[in-house]
Design goal:
By secondary structure, the protein is mostly beta strands. The protein contains one helix and 14 strands, in the order H-E-E-E-E-E-E-E-E-E-E-E-E-E-E. It is elongated, with a radius of gyration of 31 Å. The relative contact order is 0.13.
């Protein structure tokens, strides 16, 4: 009996110490470092793993004060990593895989951008796309309005950029040699969309 007790007492520290010896650090598949273009770390920014283009894999995590975050539980298949909130200014690193049982370090340059929330625009931005009867862009088409001093013309993509103050009406005429004139009229309203894109087809004479 005494020998059995002595063996049990000697074995007890080994048994109690076994879990500690078997414990290991948690393996993290990715280590992301997020910096501004100035190389300054970006803290508290969202980082998410995405599968199949739009399915989140695991929860959203936030970068720490040093701009880094670890994504531990990743699938073996390639995934996308999205850095940033919503869609405005977000950065996506596509089709990445971690190295087998070795964390993959990724450096991301992120310039925070807003979508214009809670901003009430004071003008509308208008993009006219001047096209012919076949839908091809027309360069060199002129736009004239009563408030114009210069006569802007469409570029190689058929684009004319205009702006008008909130509540105002933009009336004008698009002209190009060999085509019939086309009149356009756009009103900027507080309740409406303030980024307006309009196709203006011109008919040949």
């Amino acid at each position: 009996m005494k020998g059995s007790r002595l063996f049990a007492l000697l074995a007890l520290p080994v048994i109690l110490g076994a879990p500690r010896a078997m414990a290991s650090d948690t393996f993290c598949a990715f280590e992301i470092k997020v910096e501004e273009p100035s190389r300054r770390p970006v803290a508290d920014v969202s980082v998410t793993m995405v599968q199949h283009g739009d399915t989140a894999f695991g929860p959203e995590v936030r970068t720490g004060a040093d701009g880094t975050v670890k994504l531990c539980d990743a699938p073996l298949a390639p995934i996308d990593i999205v850095v940033g909130f919503d869609r405005c200014g977000a950065v996506m690193i596509k089709h990445v895989m971690f190295d087998w049982i070795s964390p993959k370090k990724i450096l991301v340059t992120y310039a925070p951008s807003r979508c214009g929330e809670f901003v009430f625009p004071e003008e509308c931005h208008i993009l006219f796309r001047i096209i012919d009867g076949d839908g091809r862009p027309l360069a060199g088409a002129g736009f004239s309005a009563s408030q114009d001093r210069d006569l802007p013309v469409s570029d190689e993509f058929g684009r004319l950029f205009r702006s008008v103050g909130d509540g105002q009406l933009l009336n004008g005429t698009v002209r190009k040699s060999g085509f019939k004139d086309a009149t356009v009229s756009v009103r900027c309203t507080q309740e409406g969309e303030h980024n307006i894109e309009i196709k203006v087809p011109l008919e040949r004479r």
